[in-house]
Amino acid sequence: MAEHAASPPARRLPLVQSPTNESLPRVALTPYEIVQPGDIFCDYTLVPYDPVKPPAGKLRSVNLLVESFAIAGVEAEGQRVMKLLRAALGPGRTVFGVKFYAPEHVAGWELYFYDPLRERHDLSIENVTSILAPAFAIDARPPRPLPWHMFSVEFDARHLRQELAAAVDVYISTNPQNKGTDRSYKLRGSELVFENVYSFHRPLLEIDEILYRLRYGVFFSRVENPLSALIPPELFRCGHICVANKRTADALYFSRITTEQLLFAMNFLGWRGALPGFITAHAASFDHLLWDIGFDFVVENGRIRFIKGGLYGSF
Amino acid sequence: MARSDAQTAHRRLPTRLVEQYPTLIPDTYSDAHTLLVTFGFHCNLACVFCMVEDVLGVYEGANLETFKSVLQNQATMANIRRVTLSGGEATLERNIFDYVRLARVTPGIEHVRVQTNATRLTNRNLLNDLLAAGVDEFFVSLHGPDAATCDLLTAKEGSFKAIMAGIEAIAKSSATLMTNTAIVAPNHTRLRHIVELVADYRPRTMDFWSIWPRIDQDDSRGMFVRVKDVQPHLIEALEACEQRKILPVVKWFPRCLLGRFAGYHDDSQPTVLVEQTYWEQAPSFACIYEGVCSHAPTRCTGLTFPYIRKFGWEEDILEPARGLSPTTINESTRSKQDQAPSAEAILAQLGLTADMQFAGFRVQSVRPHQRAIVIGLLSPEGHELKVRLYEPDPSRRCYARTNHFDVVHEALPDALVGKTDAPLQALVAHLRTVDFDGRH
Predict the structure, then answer these.
(1) Which residues of B touch A215 (CB under 8 A)?
(2) Which of A42, A235, A287, B297 is deepest in the core (most CB within 10 A)?
(3) Roughly how many angstroms between the first and final C-alpha of chain A, as a whole number?
(4) φ/ψ of residue B151, rounded to 5
């Protein structure tokens, strides 16, 4: 019915300026998840941090995960995973990693579950296997109680389409005074296969240990490439640098980097395609966050090649 | 102070150096007292490493009105004793005399300096007029000891001859001569020759600055040179300066590579009046050892990002001065990143124990406070003497200094006035025994 010219104006809800311009490039159909009062921001070891800029009205890191599902064509399936975990474990319990196996596309995901003090009765490999069963199968049966402080589940679109069963990686943290002895194993079925050793270091105070770990790696030689080819100055000032020695590559992880550093890192690592484009376009809406990134590297014909990368957040 | 990673909190030459050469280094030299005003932005040379290449003919800098208002701002001008006129080649600006006169009549200003290539100062009238207006120092850019090197770097044939003529004119005048040399690939082996060339003109200081790559950050012009390649030649130049009683100053070169000449290292910067957009392209600095070196980042800013991108971190060449500092102690005594440092761990780092006594004053507490450590000493009568340990800062007023701590006590309660020297001296003596890395 047409409004009468003399009638009082209709009451309208106030317009709220969204920081997430709908015209920005985006594939996902799910509404953005906006930071809510009381949100706790955590790094990829699930340790809280204070946002570096006022977070009100900005985007949660999980929007990145949702977008990556959408880009891979499994938005609904991915959303289901998130909903299952949030319903069973509650919010803020899960760290996610978006994995790049090639620079042009998102190849997979990994979910990490922390309980270093083993005080969460709802967190076990068996329980997570059960929680995620409606979304995808996990084939991991601990042959005995395992002293993990964290375990993870890596999956891709094939798992989400129920074509494959996922394995579990278990991470064993040993003596914190004896860095370089932490390690991980792949658990498939009831078989454990050694995966890597890793250590976390504060870059400013423990640079000697980082140099030591890199100096004695077999996949990188400073004769061929300078250290800055792996640790660029733009990323040096971060929370922790993690050095991992894997079976067929070594890896570095940089924690608590700003969105500005992340934009640099994506370019440095050659990450291109839809997801980096999404991050770049939404950088202002992510600028309150600290991110964690990692990459596997090898040297081929004297040149460093980044063969796998990961970008982490939590939900 | 304009923002830049290259700019440091303290702006004075090391006290130790001043004490070492009391007749050579007047305390008014320090950049803690300098205001650098940019204006004009024109130049008659085209140095290949120029810091303002992209803004010549673009920027206006501080006009007279702005300059005047800054000079009248008491907070900004507190402790400022020198005004340096810069931008492009400042002597090209017709109104330079207005700037000089304004600076000269400002209370507290003892020196008015012109940063120049000196090529126009062979004009006796110009030189005399500048002197008459109040200029007493000329900071002359000279980047080669011969025409071939110099003209290559200034991109102007004949520049060497003109610069040297200008230097000669300054030397014959009543003004103080200072020189500045950018260390770049084409001249890095010739630094001593520059000293020998200029020495006869009796410069008070000779600055040697590593290239500050604001424009050509990818070094497409081939100006970058590795610090290990510069090191022996720079040391030679510093030796030559000492022999000739010239005070050298080294900027943006790793302090740890200067050996016994480290005292000449000074990464301080003056307060700069320039368009804020200037700093958007300013190179950032870092050092792989900045978390463990007691010289970083306050005394030594490290290497530029563009340098690190080209040559690497130089982790095998740099020699961090490892020692105690409030920051490293506070950081290293956290059991987790987000937890407060533990008092016990801080005490251990300082070689202290709870209840330890200094002239009857008992160690009661220790805690981190921002970038300092606060030690509480309790007098026999139960009054607390709070002592703070800060990062070294030569401009800080403090009770005493050790290698890595400035020792400051908080305001004394009335009951402690006149009773704190003995415990403070005892504490400082203790700190000196634990705060020794054999380098100083």
Answers:
(1) none
(2) A42
(3) 45
(4) -65, -30
Strand, coil or helix: B327: helix
Task: Please give the structure tokens belonging to residue A241.
Answer: 């640098």
* Cross-chain residue pair A203–B291, CB shorter than 8 Å: yes
Phi, psi of B9 (to 5 degrees): -70, -40
**What does the block give as tokens for A151?**
């375990």
- A19 and chain B in contact, CB less than 8 A: no
The continuous run of DSSP H or E covering B110 comes out as none
Min Cα–Cα distance to chain B from A297, Å: 18
Structure token pair of residue B406? 């400035």
Query: Tell me, what's the pLDDT at A298?
Result: 93
Nearest CA in chain A to B327: A205
DSSP, residue by residue, A238-255: SS-EEEEEESS-EEEEEE
Q: What is the pLDDT of residue B339?
A: 63
Interface check for A228 against chain B (CB to CB < 8 A): the answer is: yes
Q: Does A49 touch chain B (CB under 8 A)?
A: yes
Q: Looking at chain B, which residue has its C-alpha nearest residue A236?
A: B288
Full strand arrangement of the beta sheet holding B271-273:
B247-251, B205-210, B176-183, B137-141, B111-116, B82-87, B34-39, B271-273
State the pLDDT confidence band at B25, using cuts at 50, 70 and 90: very low
**What percent of chain B has pLDDT above 90?**
61
Q: Give me the sign of the Cα torsion angle A216, A219, A224, A229.
A: negative
> A208: which chain B residues are within 8 Å (Cβ-Cβ)?
292
Q: Is A2 in the B-facing interface, judged by CB distances under 8 Å?
A: no
The predicted structure's pLDDT at residue B432: 78
Interface of A with B in 182-221 (CB under 8 A): 202-205, 207-208, 211
> Would you call A200 helix, strand, or coil by DSSP?
strand
Whether residues B286 and A240 touch (CB distance < 8 A) is answered with no
pLDDT tens across A172-209, in order?
Answer: 987 766 677 799 999 999 999 999 999 999 999 899 99
Is the link from the previous residue into B297 a cis peptide, with omega within 30 of 0?
Answer: yes
Give the separation between CA A153 and CA A97, rounded to whole angstroms. Answer: 10
Q: Is B292 on the interface with A (CB under 8 A)?
A: yes
Inform me whether the C-beta atom of residue A118 falls under 8 Å from chain B C-beta atoms: no
CA torsion angle B267 B270 B271 B277 (round to 10): -60
In this model, does residue B48 exceed pLDDT 90? Answer: yes
Tell whether A51 lies on the interface with B, counting CB pairs under 8 A: no
pTM of the model: 0.80
Strands (DSSP E) along B184-333, which ranges? 205-210, 247-251, 271-273, 285-286, 303-304
Over B179-226, what HEC string results? EEEEECCCCCCCHHHHHHHHHCCCCCEEEEEECCCCCCCCCCCCCCCC
What distance in Å separates the CA atoms of residue B239 and residue B237, rounded to the nearest whole number? 5
> What six digits make up the tokens of B127?
């030189």
* Residue B284 near chain A (CB below 8 Å): yes
Which of A117, A204, A223, A268 to mutate against chain B (most B CBs within 10 Å)? A204
Write the single-letter amino acid at A315.
Answer: F
Residues of A with CB below 8 A from B286's CB? 233, 236-237
Question: Within an 8 Å CB–CB cutoff, is residue A305 touching chain B?
Answer: no
End-to-end CA distance of chain B: 31
Eight-class DSSP state of A315:
-
3-state class (DSSP) for residue B2: coil
Q: Check the CA dihedral B282-B287-B288-B294 and report its sign.
A: negative
The answer to whether A214 and A204 have CB atoms below 8 angstroms apart is no
Chain B residues within an 8 Å CB radius of A222: 312
Question: Exposed, middle or buried: residue B414 (CB in 10 Å: 0-12, 13-18, 19+)?
Answer: exposed
CA dihedral B118, B120, B122, B123 (to 10 degrees): -150
